[in-house]
């Protein structure tokens, strides 16, 4: 049989490959998710590449060679291309994968417990003037205490231009705090120190300014209540993302140090994105809502609403649902340890 007749007999496979290309381009990931279709598509692609080589070698009609070139190129693009932007996958990533990964990451838990624990403790110590009279002054210094009191002793007023300007300032300021916590995370100890320092300083200020006899206490609460949940959570998450990088640098899990750091950087991306979004929301609130003459009730409701949304996203959506499956308790879900190798889990809790 001559080559031309052989290639003509293969035309049915070319048509089949074209049909599979159409399905991949229209149905996207749904088609690529079928194992039989992928295997058949790969086999047809290899056959088409061999047919193209024969057609080029034996100088078949230009129309046939051109057709095969286009078919092979189209099949190659479908086989090796990256996933197209799929809004469905975005929703799954944002509302399923990301909160679960963040909730399960031990670095986020350490950063959150350290920051909010020291913040709450410092706020209580700063507020209890009778029991700890010198605590606020020893942490903040007398000059800073007077400066904060004087700052909030004046009424909160501002025009629209003022709000826009302050929103831009707070975006830059908050971003600087987040980047500082994130960058120091590579060395671990500086990150923990930065988190602890910010927690103690902010907690002491909150506690001192919440005293009933402090000048400007009412204005202070009017200003910080609305944006507090966004900003405080964002700082803790930025520290958690930095710690994730640092852990990847020192605890390689058998990988090379560069590969471990690269993998940790990938795991830190959702944490840092969530932190950046919270910093942005905090800046907008701090620029437009916090200094506005709105009643304190509205600002408090905004704080409660934002706290509820944060808790719902990171705790409710992030809480592991694979611990119990069909009445059998699993030791841990597959995404529990971000640095563990991807191994199938048995219902007894170990690797299969």
Structural write-up:
- It is a single chain.
- The chain has 352 residues and is mainly α.
- It has two domains: 3-80, no CATH class; 89-319, no CATH class.
- The protein is 73% helix and 1% strand.
- The chain is built from 15 helices and two strands.
- It has helices at residues 3-9, 11-27, 29-32, 35-57, 62-80, 87-104, 106-127, 135-140, 142-151, 160-184, 189-209, 217-224, 228-250, 257-289, 296-316, and strands at residues 324-325, 328-329.
- It has a two-stranded antiparallel ribbon with strand order 1-2.
- Strand 1 and strand 2 (328-329) form a beta hairpin.
- It is elongated and about 100 Å long.
- The two termini are 52 Å apart.
What key attributes describe this structure?
352 residues; mainly alpha; single chain; 2 strands; two-stranded antiparallel ribbon; 2 domains; elongated
- What overall geometry do the principal axes of the alpha carbons give? elongated
Helix proportion range: over 70%
Task: Tell me the number of helical segments per DSSP (H or I, 4 or more residues long).
Answer: 15
What structural class do the secondary elements suggest? mainly alpha
How far apart lie the N and C ends? 52 Å
Query: For the residues shown, what is the average pLDDT?
Result: 82
Largest sheet: 2 strands, antiparallel
Q: Approximately what portion of the residues adopt beta-strand conformation?
A: under 5%
Radius of gyration: 29 Å
Going across the biggest sheet, name each strand in turn.
Answer: 1-2
SSE run: HHHHHHHHHHHHHHHEE
What is the count of β-strands?
2
Q: Please give the domain count.
A: 2
Q: Provide the low-confidence segments as ranges.
A: 323-352
